[in-house]
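User: For documentation purposes, I need each entry recorded in a consistent format: the amino acid sequence on its own, followed directly by the corresponding structure tokens. There are two entries in this batch. Please keep commentary to a minimum and don't merge the entries.

Assistant: Recorded as requested. Entry 1:
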Amino acid sequence: MTSVGGKRKTSDQDHQDDIIPTCTICLQGYSNRTFLRPCYHSFCFYCIRHWINIASSVCPICRQSINSLVYNIDDEENSFDEYYLKDKGNRKQHDPPLYKKKYTSPEERLRIERRNVYKGIMQPDKYPDPLDRHADFTVITPEYIPRTRVFLQNELKIIVGVDAYDDFLQDHFVKILLIPYQQHLSSMFDDEHVIQSLSEWLDDDKQVATRLLNELVAYLKSGLSYKHFISSATYK
């Protein structure tokens, strides 16, 4: 037995401390530990790739559908690769490349994904369920402005770029978004002027303005924090 902090440890406890985390498929130590989204159970890269191709595209542990694999994780460089199962395309098997250009950080991955949402490359699949008290939300009222500002501050930097963003732009968007409330309209989408006014600050792109409004409404209905919302919403 060994003694730690004045307390004795049994040999069994010593053994437990030496246990190395193992892949539940091969029962060996991880080789290129790979996490599944959204459940975040982990396996060897080759083990889970083989599992998906010969067995199922659900997690072997919790049976939840697998959206993507997060692998080639480098803690020192704060980088990783991610493979989405929908990337399979016409191939008969999922064969994520072992090496590809890494995101330099999770923040970079987020910026690219959010930018693709506004480009229309990624389409909304499922937003988080709305809270009961926000389920009937149709118009931005003053009580929603603080959360609206958080959303705009983050999303406008992605859409127009950090260099082009300033507080004036955010303030102007808030004024536009309050128009339906001030005019006693039943929905923000009832006033074409809102989309038109937003698009004038987005390179006259009404599609981007509409996507921004849809994302904002889903975010406000969810009641979630900004980070929780964008990590919970799924796109295809």
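Entry 2:
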Amino acid sequence: MHKCCRKLVCAPLIRSGNLVEGNPGATSGDETVPYNSLSLCKSWLGSKVNMTRAPQAEHDGSDVQVELNVDHLPEDDIIPNMTRSSRVKYITYYEDSESIPGKRTAVWELDKANHRNIVRSPVLMRELWLQMWHDIRPDTTSKFVTKAKRGPLRDDDCYWDYGKARCAWAEYCEYRYIFGDVHLGQSCRLKNSSAETLLNYL
């Protein structure tokens, strides 16, 4: 998509730090909050930033992109040099690799999120919960929770894959019928307890 003035001088429209061609829909910001306002948050990051882009949905890590120790000037926006599929909604994480003394900053951008209802976003709640759980663990070895993959964390996250005639996410979920289940998806449950599953995110 291009924004053109009467003199036919065209400038690419930038959304979420990426050149957007065609009409994929808003990638960051919506009708309530412009991107320029949201990007101000990234000016709070330190001098070195780790950037990770991953699908919002559960994923196996095959579509995760990472840029480490990217230089960041104080009070400036920062733009990832990453690709995106028009069919996937991503979350882009910006995290201090060298924290300002006494502070630790992370900024998350969620594609196509309505900012009026952001607190209802299951993806945001999952990420916030994982980070809080990570922070209270005495045995954690990193400042931020890993982004390498996102699998089911609760029985409710498991579901039946009709194409494969089994529970999806076979690494995490199994078919285990309990009296009262009324459809196949309800009988898909975590193989291990949630507590054991969470150990993958230290």
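Summary note for entry 2:
Residues 151-202 form one domain.
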